[in-house]
Amino acid sequence: MNYSSEVKEILDTPLNMLTFVVFDIETTGIHPENGDKILEIGAVKLHPDFRFYFISCG
Question: Where is the Exonuclease domain positioned along the sequence (predicted)?
């Protein structure tokens, strides 16, 4: 299987059949050059069997 066919296979797979991670980033704003900072990073790993694990740092 080559890269192109692997990508097509993943893109053709329904989301409820994939394992993936959703990230959430909380910030003080959208301009780091003006001093805005990341306050918290969270992640949720979703599995095909609908169990998930919550990770939060901050």
Answer: 21-50
**C-alpha closest to that of 28 among 19, 16, 40:** 40
Q: What SS3 string covers 11-26?
A: HCCCHHHCCEEEEEEE
For 21, the domain range is 3-57
The pTM assigned to this predicted structure is 0.56
Summarised one tens digit per residue, pLDDT across range 14-58 is 888 888 898 999 999 999 999 999 999 999 888 887 655 666 666
Structural domain total, the chain: 1
Distance, CA of 31 to CA of 34 (rounded, Å) = 5
For 29, phi then psi, to 5°, come to: 170, -170
